[in-house]
Amino acid sequence: MVDQGWSFTSRERVVGATTVVELGGEVDILAATALGLRLDEITGTRHPDLVLDVRDVTFIDCCGVSMLCRTRRRTEAKAGRLRLAGVAESPSVLRLLRLTGLLSTFDLCFDAGSDPAFGFAGETGAGPRTDDACPCTRPHTEGPGRPATPDAPTDSAVA
Predict the structure, then answer these.
(1) Burial class (CB in 10 A: 0-12, 13-18, 19+), 29
(2) I need a labelling partner for 50 at 20 to 30 A (CA). Which of 6, 40, 76, 128 fits?
(3) For the whole model, what pTM was predicted?
């Protein structure tokens, strides 16, 4: 990842037909504004397939959650798919999604070998969707990911 002293980083790569965006640092109003433009480009295509890997997010505020919800709405409007990876590994994201009641509205990346009771059992409608594995190549606490060979990644840092 590129580090230019900003509190937020993102790294994007394509795995097959899926765009994987790894987020890190603080997802606040500045990050959400800058990243939102790129996510609008990705979700503006027909049938977008997007994974947002949030495991390295250390802070998220209402603007960050709003960005996630907008991305989900735009993806659904284009008959695409949005998945969140690493939610269980990012206490700030997990906590805010639970507090807002939004955890069950997102498709979480879990593999078939994962434990459905991994901290999400009490949520209404929440739980792993195990129809296919996450295309991100990073290790998951939720379960082992299916390795994929990503194309050359593009790094970017956003304020």
Answers:
(1) middle
(2) 6
(3) 0.71
Contacts within 8 Å (CB) and 24+ apart, 116-123: 118/88, 118/142, 119/88, 119/94, 120/88, 123/98
Widest CA span in the chain: 41
pLDDT in tens, 18-56: 999 999 999 999 999 999 999 999 999 999 999 999 999
Q: Considering Cα of 133, then 78, then 12, then 66, what sign does the dihedral take?
A: negative
Under a CB-based contact definition with an 8 Å cutoff, are residues 54 and 85 in contact?
yes
DSSP, residue by residue, 7-59: SEEEEEEEETTEEEEEEEEEESHHHHHHHHHHHHHHHTSSS-EEEEEEEEEEE
Q: State how far the alpha carbon of 54 is from the alpha carbons of 14, 16, 25, 154, in Å.
A: 17, 20, 9, 17
Q: What is the total residue count of the chain? A: 159
User: Which pLDDT score is estimated for 71?
Assistant: 97
Which is higher by pLDDT, 159 or 9? 9
